[in-house]
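User: Here's a protein and a ligand (hypoxanthine). What would the complex look like?
Assistant: Let me lay out the input and then the predicted complex.
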Amino acid sequence: MEAYTAQQYQESAAALERRLGGFRPKVLLILGSGLGALGDEVENPVAVPYEEVPHMRRSTAPDHRGQFLFGRLAGQDAAVMQGRLHTYEGWSFADVSYPVRVLRLLGAETVIVTNAAGAVNTAFSAGDIMLITDHIKLFGESPLRGPNLEQFGPRFPDMSRVYTPALQEAARRAAERLEIPLREGVYMFFPGPQYETPAEVRAARLLGADAVGMSTVPEAITAAHCGMRVLGFTLCTNMAAGVLDQPLSGEEVIAAAGAAGPRFQALVRACLKEV
Ligand code: HPA
């Protein structure tokens, strides 16, 4: 698929501007599998289904509602994505991170990305929350493939601090204050939709991954490219394949995300106050 043009991003931003009146989100919060409930706390939300944004793809994943909610959340002017897009749905990296650039054009400066993932680090347990300190994607696609749009960022962007150190610090402080145990580590992208094999999980561990999942990295790369601050949280809904002697299921992931929801939401709410 062709890369998007600057004009397409601008048309999407203009369409949202018309819906939003004078409201301008400062923070984009992307809610992962089973974590959409926080969107329900947006005050007087303006809801915009993804299919009403010109050029934007639809969310087809289970438990992803597929809409923006614009409004105040935890004291911030926020755009919340209730459900994200994934490459396993058939979308490209550029498709799934399209909304990041649109929100950048609307003036958002920070992205908070959340996801459900499998824990690779054997010191972790299902239900743990992990602060993302870095990621591994290796090879293959990039959301930045194709002609570079200079107004967003450089051709060869630095990725040495994708996850903003000051926001990581804020997250650690918030977790401590709330007495929520917070793991830290490296998130490794796998394209899915099949879960990883035990051998892939062992390989991921050798490479330095602490969790494996099917999202987040396209949006984080795109946000870093256009100079946005990024904060990422992973909810480890299960031990990754082969860690325990039991099969993985999508239902288990969504149930675990629901069970950890209140803790996760409290942490994200606290971080929203600090970004
Ligand atoms: N692997 C990949 N993605 C996931 C997992 C997993 O084990 N759990 C939740 N999302």
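Summary: Helices lie at 6-20, 93-96, 98-105, 165-178, 198-207, 217-225, 250-274.
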